Automatic annotation (TrEMBL):
Pfam families: Bac_luciferase (PF00296). The lineage of its organism: Bacteria, Bacillati, Bacillota, Bacilli, Bacillales. To bacterial alkanal monooxygenase alpha and beta chains. NCBIfam families: oxido_grp_1. This is LLM class flavin-dependent oxidoreductase.
Length: 329
């Protein structure tokens, strides 16, 4: 089973945004050392506590401090941008870091209605045009001069690999129709991912001879030496989610100690339990067992792990334990 990293670059209450981005670099470096296949950074806008508004910029920084791990936008929110510019960005990255660049495409706004208006005009109309936007971007990435008079230079020797990210039938169907790889966000979905991936595999239409469907599943995982410790470490991000939903608390992720002091209402206890159902939390053997089940359930050999914790030490420990158990079991 291949392992990869999805990083929202969280800012904890004892950190600056600069430190959070430096932690992201450290995570990518250690992930490379531990055999992770790819490192993707999410794109969010005007969300306190996340330092990932410009993943394409951070990837150039991380690429300069790593050697082999694949780097990608997870995802570039296409309705905000012109496909030509997106192609230029990723061609530049692919020129700097040959054979290492992924283009993740998504249709979500990535923030509030206000930030959506600040980023782009007519966002909803662009969402409806998503199939056309994806096709236009693919033609630029494929350096299709027959259908495009423009070249999104610099043109790299090794083209970036396109991925479509999503949680819906629309995203699954579109990835299949366009003949590109599909990343299913298990950690943020209430849908039956098995049905979506079956639909993708069944309807996949290769763009060129030899193309095959490719699937990864992004899963929220917290791993520690014991189940008790893993649940303790997970508490910071879980309480943070509840605080953000209520518009209360600090903008950054609370410490474990502060999270333990948070008084949960009965409704919040139910929400917390529901959030934990979407996550994999436990010791290395427990986590490995659940990841194998998820891999089998979704018919994929690649799991993309998102571990959001308060301290860099706990983040790195989680990713290290996962890789050690998966790679040596």
């Amino acid at each position: 089973m291949k392992l990869s990293i999805l990083d929202p670059s969280p800012v904890s209450s004892n950190q600056t945004a600069q430190q959070a981005l430096q932690n992201s670099r450290a995570l990518a470096q250690m992930g490379e050392k531990w055999g992770y296949t790819r490192y993707w950074m999410t794109e969010h806008h005007d969300l306190p506590g996340l330092a990932c508004s410009a993943p394409e910029v951070v990837l150039s920084y991380i690429g300069a401090h790593t050697e082999s791990i694949r780097l990608g936008t997870g995802a570039m929110l296409l309705p905000h941008y012109k496909p030509f510019k997106v192609a230029e960005i990723h061609h530049t990255l692919a020129t700097l870091f040959p054979g290492r660049i992924d283009v993740g495409m998504g249709r979500a706004p990535g923030g509030s209605a206000e930030v959506t208006n600040a980023l782009s005009d007519q966002f909803l109309q662009q969402v409806f045009k998503m199939p056309e936007l994806v096709e236009e971007l693919l033609q630029f990435l494929e350096q299709d001069t027959e259908n495009n008079r423009l070249s999104a230079s610099p043109l790299p020797d090794i083209k970036p690999e396109p991925w479509l990210l999503g949680t819906s039938k629309k995203s699954s169907r579109l990835a299949a129709e366009k003949g590109i790889a599909y990343a299913f966000a298990h950690f943020m979905s209430d849908n039956d991912g098995r049905e979506l991936i079956q639909q993708y595999l069944k309807n996949f239409q290769p763009r060129k001879e030899g193309d095959r469907p490719k699937v990864l599943v992004a899963v929220s995982v917290i791993c520690a030496d014991t189940n008790e410790k893993a649940n303790e470490v997970a508490l910071s991000s879980l309480i943070w989610s509840l605080q953000k939903e209520k518009g209360e608390g600090k903008e950054e992720m609370p410490s474990i100690a502060d999270a333990k002091q948070y008084e949960l209402s009965d409704v919040e206890r139910q929400k917390l339990a529901k959030m934990k159902q979407k996550m994999v939390i436990g010791n290395r053997k427990e986590v490995n067992r659940e990841l194998i089940e998820i891999s089998s359930k979704y018919q994929t050999d690649e799991i993309m792990v998102i571990s959001t914790t308060y301290s860099l030490e706990d983040i790195l420990k989680s990713y290290w334990l996962i890789s050690e158990e998966v790679n040596h079991s």
